[in-house]
């Protein structure tokens, strides 16, 4: 299935490959249906949901507009509370920096909480290359790590798998990384989580360094926050001596008063609950309480480029709730996050990934086309991102870039034809004579997919202009005949 005009590259190819995987698509459809109905029920119970959305969007817009000064305030607040702040311009720098911090502590193994930003910077690969074993402690991320798989969803990274696939993974893979799965393990959720808990507990207890992300950072106090349902992040940010947190520079909120809005909005929009099961907050270091060393890594990686784009910058409001993924027909039909060929998937991936990467490759240029522009994502987005507006803006940019040769040729041929009415007339006459025969023939190259998914209407034998000219001629003839008839009748009356 090709989702867009001819010339569309990467996303359409991966979506094509996933189309026949009925198990994958069944898993995705089941999970997203559950999440969106839970969210809809929860929102219906909140009387000021509309005002919360307005506030969520407004606070993010304000923060992004004054990002520089809030980032400086955050840096000072973290340092004042005994933490260290590091700046990374790109993913490579961030991964190298974190790897160096871990190496300096002499750790050969680190525990990690699920963080999309760690995927964005390729942190696991960098750590592994340096001889350090990263251990994912979020259940979904842990399952993916055992399978050497990528996250398929922002908050539910193994949404593409069902229980029996998870059981099979545990049985075949767990022993390679530590404590094996019980021999009589079934696919009952309680047994599966228990097996993962026992396997990971040993690693939590011996870890000296942990790496986390963060949902928000409060500039006025240098506090980081995470929301979660499993408790593994809380273990990461309390048990080891050294804690390293990495966040994108857009994760800021200025004050605790601003944070109050997101304390309500994020759990509501992400999991349909009034409050997250665990909300952890940490500011610097404290004697006798948690890690003795805290490092905050602030990552740009294309975010300031997105900030410079007046239309595209609204993507930086995103709080990664995943509501847009759960309502997206393309995400569900295409087979989840893996087909996007990038860390961020679904509607937010379609507008964020190309901006972070600067549309530098075929995948990034294809993503703005991974949408039907139905607007369901905009309706649920808690920070009111206007997805169709950004998608069209990015499509225009993609069309000006490399690729899309066929589309550009077709458009310049159309421009010439419409600019010269004689050429247009000749084209219409030719279409009337040969058009239907030509339309039945197969088209070559990428145009084959474009045509294969469409039913072309039958072309009329004559153009509208020609038909109109003949019709007017006929009308004039009829009028002249009537006039002649009337004159004859008048002449007859005169002679009587
Ligand atoms: S774009 Fe909006 S709906 Fe999608 S993940 Fe971000 S905040 Fe949630």
UniProtKB/TrEMBL annotation:
Residue span, 4Fe-4S ferredoxin-type domain: 315-385
Coiled-coil residue spans: none
Skewed-composition ranges (Basic and acidic residues): 468-477, 484-496
UniProt-annotated stretches for the region Disordered: 468-496
Repeat recorded as keyword: yes
Pfam families given in the database record: Fer4_8 (PF13183), LUD_dom (PF02589), LutB_C (PF11870)
Domain Lactate utilization protein B C-terminal: 402-472
Protein name: Lactate utilization protein B
Organism listed in the record: Streptomyces gamaensis
């Amino acid at each position: 299935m090709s989702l867009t005009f001819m010339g569309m590259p990467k996303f359409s190819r991966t979506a094509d490959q996933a189309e026949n995987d009925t198990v994958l698509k069944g898993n995705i459809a089941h999970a997203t249906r559950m999440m969106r109905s839970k969210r809809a029920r929860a929102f219906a119970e909140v009387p000021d949901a509309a005002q919360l959305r307005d506030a969520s969007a407004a606070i993010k817009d304000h923060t992004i507009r004054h990002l520089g000064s809030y980032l400086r305030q955050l840096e000072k607040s973290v340092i004042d509370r005994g933490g260290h702040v590091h700046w990374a311009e790109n993913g490579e720098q961030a991964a190298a920096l974190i790897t160096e911090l871990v190496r300096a502590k002499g750790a050969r193994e680190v525990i990690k909480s699920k963080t999309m930003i760690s995927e964005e910077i390729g942190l696991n690969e960098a750590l592994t290359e340096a001889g350090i074993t990263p251990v994912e402690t979020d259940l979904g991320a842990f399952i993916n790590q055992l399978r050497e798989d990528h996250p398929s969803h922002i908050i539910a990274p193994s949404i593409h798998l069902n229980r029996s696939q998870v059981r099979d993974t545990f049985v075949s893979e767990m022993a390679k990384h530590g404590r094996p799965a019980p021999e009589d393990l079934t696919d009952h959720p309680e047994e599966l989580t228990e097996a993962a808990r026992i396997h990971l507990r040993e690693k939590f207890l011996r870890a000296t360094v942990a790496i986390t992300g963060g949902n928000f950072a409060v500039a006025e106090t240098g506090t980081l926050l995470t929301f979660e349902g499993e408790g593994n992040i809380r273990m990461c940010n309390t048990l080891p001596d050294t804690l390293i947190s990495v966040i994108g520079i857009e994760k800021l909120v200025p004050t605790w008063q601003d944070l109050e809005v997101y304390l309500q909005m994020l759990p509501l929009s992400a999991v349909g609950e009034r409050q997250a099961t665990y909300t952890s907050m940490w500011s610097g270091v404290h004697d006798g309480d948690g890690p003795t060393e805290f490092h905050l890594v602030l990552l740009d990686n294309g975010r300031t480029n997105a900030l410079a784009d007046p239309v595209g910058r609204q993507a930086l409001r995103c709080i990664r709730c995943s509501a847009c993924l759960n309502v997206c027909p393309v995400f569900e039909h295409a087979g989840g996050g893996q087909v996007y060929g990038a860390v961020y998937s679904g509607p937010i991936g379609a507008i964020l990934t190309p901006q972070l990467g600067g549309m530098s490759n075929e995948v990034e240029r294809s993503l703005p086309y991974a949408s039907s522009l139905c607007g369901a994502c905009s309706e649920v987005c808690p920070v009111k991102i206007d997805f169709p507006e950004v998608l069209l803006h990015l499509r225009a940019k993609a069309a000006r870039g490399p690729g899309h040769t066929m589309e550009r040729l077709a458009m310049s041929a159309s421009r010439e034809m419409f600019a010269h009415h004689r050429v247009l007339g000749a084209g219409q006459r030719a279409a009337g004579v040969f058009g239907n025969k030509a339309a039945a023939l197969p088209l070559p190259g990428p145009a084959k997919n474009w045509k294969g998914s469409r039913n072309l209407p039958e072309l009329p034998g004559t153009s509208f202009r020609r038909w109109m000219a003949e019709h007017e001629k006929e009308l004039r003839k009829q009028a002249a005949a009537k006039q002649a008839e009337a004159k004859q009748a008048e002449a007859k009356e005169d002679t009587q």
